[in-house]
């Protein structure tokens, strides 16, 4: 499983979602109007990244089942 490049890409995408989530929550915690706008933007990026991560996970599962 760890030698499969698609699994590694999906795992990196999941870590990317986590990083964006932590940055968004941290920015939101600072307070202020500018921070709220930036946090909102980061959360929007998180949704896009999460969609990509889910698609990669589904692709990995599909490819794994086809090869088995």
Provide a descriptive summary of the structure in words.
With 68 residues, the chain is an all-alpha fold. Helix content is 90%, strand content 0%.
The proportion of strand residues reads under 5%
Order of helices and strands: HH
Low-confidence stretches: none
- The shape is elongated
Number of domains: 1
Relative helix content: over 70%
Number of helices: 2
Please state the structural category. Answer: mainly alpha
Radius of gyration, whole Å: 15 Å
> Average pLDDT value?
91
How far apart the termini lie comes to: 13 Å
Please summarize the sheet with the most strands: none
Number of E-state strands = 0
Pfam family, one: HIG_1_N
Protein name: Hypoxia induced protein conserved region
Transmembrane segments: 6-26, 47-63
Keywords: Membrane, Transmembrane, Transmembrane helix
Name a few traits of the molecule.
68 residues; mainly alpha; 2 helices; 90% helix; transmembrane helix
């Amino acid at each position: 499983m760890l030698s499969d490049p698609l699994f590694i890409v999906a795992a990196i995408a999941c870590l990317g979602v986590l990083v964006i989530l932590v940055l968004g929550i941290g920015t939101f915690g600072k307070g202020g109007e500018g921070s709220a706008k930036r946090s909102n933007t980061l959360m929007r990026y998180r949704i896009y990244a999460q969609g990509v991560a889910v698609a990669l996970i589904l692709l990995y599962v599909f490819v794994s089942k086809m090869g088995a």
